[in-house]
Each structure stands twice: as C-alpha cells, then as structure tokens.
Here is the input.
Amino acid sequence: MRVKFRAECVKDVLLVTHVLTATERATIEVEMLVSAYDPQAPELTIDLTTTTIDELRNVMRAVEDGHMMVETLKPEAEYDGLMDMLIVRDMGIPPTLVSPATSLKDLQAKYPFPAEDIKQIHDTLERQTPGNGIPGARKVLNRAMKRNTDPMDELTVELL
Here is the structure.
C-alpha cells in the first residue's frame, strides 16, 4: 500500500524512514515534493510492505514534533494534504491551528500568546533565515501550544 503525508521538516522524515527500514517494516520510495500548504514542509509518498497505517502513525508519534506526519498520513488515493480533524482533536491541538497562518497578523489572531511575543519570534526567525519568519514562528508556536510552554522559551530552543 502506498501512503502519503506531510512533515514539518526533512529531519522528521529521516527519523521515521530510519525506524521503518531498520525494522524492515516498509519499502521506502521517498518522493519529496514541495507542499502547496507550506513550502518548508515536505510532502512524501512511501510504499508500506508489512506495516499498517496505524503502526506507521505510532512510529510517527515517537518523533518529537511528528504531529504533522500523524495528522496528514493517508493512503495515496485519499491524500489531500489536510490535517485529519479527528486526529487533531485526539492530539489536543486547537482547530484554529489546522489551517496555517500566512501572515504575522494571522499568527497573532490564531495563537493565544501576546502579539508582541509573536512578532518578536517572527522577526527573530526572519532575520536568521529570510523567508522563515511565518513557517518558523508557526513551528515554535505550535510546539509551545502542544507542550504548554512559554513561546519565548521555545524560541530559545529553536535557536540553539
């Protein structure tokens, strides 16, 4: 069975594929595409041989910040690139975070953190890597939401 999913970054994909190939639970034919939803988040197609989708989700759950893979994993024929609302709800992620923010104003409207903190996170990541302000801030803010931590602490971790 062929499956497809999105990931936050290539590192997440490498961790999952390493586990799958080391345990011979999948034949990996990685087809990396630029996501229409987020150019920073690769889309993948993988051929599963002996692993079910539920088993693959469990492997993905073990990856720190692997929630995007878990939430978008579907058989290739059913793949739409969108997060599965039932999985999102089970993982405790607010539905407002499902559609990605595309501007600083959008980030400030969607996340329950002080607007000044969000702007500082955005500006810091944009200065570090031009073009990474919005996707980088989304990653930091999602991690802060998921872990129930201060987003400025998550920014510090991101910059290390």
Remarks:
- Residues 133-147 form the longest helix (15 residues).
- The domain at 2-90 is CATH 3.30.70 (Alpha-Beta Plaits).
- Strands lie at 2-6, 26-27, 33-34, 42-48, 74-75.
